[in-house]
């Protein structure tokens, strides 16, 4: 199990992906709740490794993560939000009049930081191979 984190100033995306690349869990939480949520997820899923995006607040978060995890892997998160929007619209296709507007011109109805966390895990695994 891998835990992915998209750190941010006010909110963070978290995801858990298993060895078969199934998304087990994903959520957007307040940044000040990150460590307590990670402790719960680490115990629940027996995760020993975490993937962290290198964007906002990553250096602060990384130092805290070393207290919880044996391995902290920092991944480039360039363009991950754009990629996450595509996944969001795939999982949540527009309805009603929104179907008439290309999704590339729409803003998702909720934060996509959890999708970014999933993308960071996939990027890490691609680079590991």
Give the low-pLDDT segments: none
What is the distance, rounded to the nearest whole angstrom, between the alpha carbons of the first and last residues? Answer: 17 Å
Strand content: 15-25%
Radius of gyration over all CA atoms, rounded? 15 Å
Cross-sheet strand order for the largest sheet: 3-2-1-4-5
Largest sheet: 5 strands, mixed
Kindly describe this structure.
- This protein has helices spanning 34-45, 58-65, 80-91, 113-128; strands at 2-6, 11-17, 23-30, 49-53, 71-75.
- The protein is an alpha/beta fold and 129 residues long.
- α3 (80-91) crosses α4 (113-128).
- The radius of gyration is 15 Å and the shape is globular.
- The mean pLDDT is 95.
What descriptors fit this protein?
single chain, 129 residues, alpha/beta, five-stranded mixed sheet, 5 strands, 23% strand, globular
Provide a brief overview of the structure:
This protein is of the alpha/beta class and 129 residues long. The chain has helices at residues 34-45, 58-65, 80-91, 113-128; strands at 2-6, 11-17, 23-30, 49-53, 71-75.
Give the helix/strand layout:
Elements: E1 2-6, E2 11-17, E3 23-30, H1 34-45, E4 49-53, H2 58-65, E5 71-75, H3 80-91, H4 113-128
Parallel strand pairs: 1-4, 4-5
Antiparallel strand pairs: 1-2, 2-3
Helix pairs in contact: 3-4
């Amino acid at each position: 199990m891998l835990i992915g984190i998209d750190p941010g100033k006010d909110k963070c995306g978290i995801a858990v992906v298993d060895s078969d690349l199934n998304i087990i869990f994903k959520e957007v939480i307040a940044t000040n709740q990150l460590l307590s949520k990670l402790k719960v997820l680490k115990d629940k899923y027996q995760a020993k490794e975490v993937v962290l995006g290198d964007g906002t607040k990553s250096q602060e978060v990384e130092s805290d993560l070393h207290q919880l995890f044996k391995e902290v892997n920092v991944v480039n998160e360039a363009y991950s939000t754009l990629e996450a929007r595509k996944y969001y619209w795939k999982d949540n296709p527009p309805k009603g009049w929104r179907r008439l507007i290309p999704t590339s011109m729409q803003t998702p109805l909720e934060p996509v930081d959890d999708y970014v966390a999933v993308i960071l895990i996939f990027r890490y695994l691609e680079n590991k191979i």
